[in-house]
Specification:
Helix content is 35%, strand content 22%. By secondary structure, it is α/β, with parallel strands linked by helices. It folds into 2 domains: 5-160, Leucine Aminopeptidase, subunit E, domain 1; 187-494, Zn peptidases (Aminopeptidase), CATH 3.40.630.10. α12 links the parallel β15 and β16. It starts with a strand and ends with a helix. Bound molecules: ligand BES, manganese (II) ion (MN) and zinc ion. Manganese (II) ion binds at residues 272, 274, 349, 351.
């Protein structure tokens, strides 16, 4: 990863006097912002608008030769002044990120003060800028012999105007950059192929988070230990694979000692072939992404550690590979979970819930304030919500509301789904306490009902991210829902 830094700058009253390789100024439709106006003593910006090549639409950009001490001037379209709002600001900042990726400048100065208004708040905008440009700088390189050029930009200075203290501005930039790096880390883990990113690899990544940081401790439970704990459900998934399962526990202690931790539980199926209930061949490669829940736990923890949030957070990752073999679990097999509940495995492709249920039982030992599991759990979720929303299930209304709000604030949105007893009944079995599938109807909901049966005694939420965690065209992990989870934890840290 190249190093990209964000700093707070106080430009002089005359923006043409401030030295920069690229001054970025907002333009609202055909109306120059105050800073653009101040820069335009010779009328070149006005002339450029008159030509009509640049219309000032949200996210549209236009590069011009320099004025005064600014080597270049970038016009950043923000749409009509009266219609400027957080959604338009997001489009503008996305356009800025795209333009910076196409530009060879190593340094730039964004005059952000002109973009603030009644409903676009300074800290929010600066966090968004740092996050979006960091996320835009990500390149997948690991297994390419000719990777794309990295982003040329090394330093973005942001002038927040008078409304925000330099300290608050810098915190917003730092937190946005930390979130962006957490998102990129999650994307990288998701994008890595299954022959590199195994359960053992996830365990070594988790150990990296605690290296040299006394506030973080990583523990890895091996299969032998899991057997002693009675995790027959989790172990039934790795039974057919040559890769041993790992239960990874990462404890970040940024808060008061003894204060109950927020617990994140991630599905870490590093490849899901379906097992004996094997999947069809088309798009099976995408099942390397079946560890995106786990990757979001690691990315969120990285961001939280980076921000040094005053909060206790524990990540649990249930990592396994789901493969067919002579030792694999078969449809009809009955296994016993750590909770004592027996499970009839009617379909070995419904493996996510089998690893998560034992992790949820394990979570209870941590006396959690809340437990949130994150999983690419069901194809049915993709049918129900597509890629725009993560499904949110919860046994606690306040927790659900907090997650939905965090998702709205960061545009990493969730949508609440039901956990009614009527759906749970679809999991009844003649041969065990529960079946692991509930038939073709409401598949994301019955999967969540299965998990709910194990999430007892603490506030719990489940995020089905099967639709939101990756894109099929062009293929790539999105890093969701790291923004939602990190915002949720920032809000808890703020009290
Ligand atoms: N990892 C899949 C879910 C999935 C499928 C995510 C497609 C994203 C895209 C999960 O393990 C799975 O296979 N679920 C089955 C459950 C079924 C057997 C009840 C599914 O959704 O088909
Ligand atoms: Mn599966
Ligand atoms: Zn799966």
């Amino acid at each position: 990863m190249s190093t990209l830094t964000f700093t707070t700058a106080r430009a002089s009253a005359d923006p043409a006097k401030t030295k920069t390789r690229c001054a970025i100024v907002a333009v609202f439709g055909n109306e120059l912002s105050a800073t653009a106006e101040a820069l335009d003593s010779a009328g070149t910006l006005r002339a450029a608008l008159k030509l009509g090549d640049f219309k000032g639409k949200p996210g549209e950009t236009h590069m011009l030769p320099g004025i005064g001490n600014a080597e270049r001037v970038m016009l950043l379209g923000c749409g009509e002044r009266a219609q400027f709002n957080p959604a338009v600001a997001r489009d503008a900042v996305q356009g800025l990120s795209t333009a910076l990726n196409a530009c060879s400048t190593t340094e730039a100065l964004l005059h952000a003060a002109d973009m603030l208004g009644d409903n676009v708040e300074g800290a929010w905008l600066l966090e968004l800028v740092a996050r979006t440009i960091t996320v835009g700088s990500y390149r997948y390189t690991r297994t390419l012999s000719k990777p794309k050029d990295p982003l040329a930009l090394k330093k973005l200075a942001v002038n927040p105007g008078k409304g925000l203290s330099s300290q608050k501005a810098q915190t917003a930039l730092d937190q946005g950059a930390a979130l962006g790096r957490g998102i990129n880390y999650t994307r990288e883990l998701g994008n890595l192929p299954g022959n590199i990113c195994t359960p053992t690899y996830l365990a070594s990544e988790a150990r990296k988070l605690s290296r040299g940081n006394s506030k973080v401790r990583t523990q890895v439970l091996e299969e032998k230990k899991m057997r002693e704990l009675g995790m027959g459900s989790l172990l039934s998934v790795s039974a057919g694979s040559d890769e041993p399962a790992k239960l990874i526990v990462i404890e970040y202690r940024g808060g008061k000692s003894g204060s109950a931790p927020q617990v994140l539980v991630g599905k870490g199926i590093t490849f899901d072939s379906g097992g004996i209930s094997i999947k069809p061949g088309a798009k099976m490669d995408e099942m390397k992404y079946d560890m995106c829940g786990a990757a979001s736990v690691l990315g969120t923890l990285q961001a939280v550690i980076d921000m040094a949030l005053p909060l206790n957070v524990t990540g649990i990752i249930a990592a396994a590979e789901n493969m067919p073999s002579g030792r694999a679990t078969k449809p009809g097999d009955v296994v016993k979970s750590m909770s004592g509940t027996t499970i009839e495995i009617l379909n070995t492709d419904a493996e996510g819930r089998l690893v998560l249920c034992d992790a949820l039982t394990f979570a209870r030992r941590l006396k959690p304030a809340a437990v949130i599991d994150i999983a690419t759990l069901t194809g049915a979720c993709v049918v129900a919500l597509g890629s725009h929303a993560s499904a949110v299930y919860a046994n606690n209304d306040a927790l659900a509301e907090q997650l939905l709000q965090a998702g709205t604030a960061t545009h990493d949105r969730g949508w609440r789904m039901p956990l009614w007893e009527d759906y749970r009944k679809q999991l009844n079995s003649n041969f065990a306490d529960l079946a692991n599938i509930g038939g073709p109807e409401g598949g994301s909901i019955t999967a969540a009902c299965f998990l709910a049966a194990f999430a007892e005694g603490y506030p719990w939420a489940h995020l089905d991210i099967a639709g939101s965690a990756w894109n099929s065209a062009p293929k790539g992990a999105t890093g969701r829902p790291v923004a939602m989870l990190t915002r949720y934890l920032q809000d808890r840290a703020a009290g």
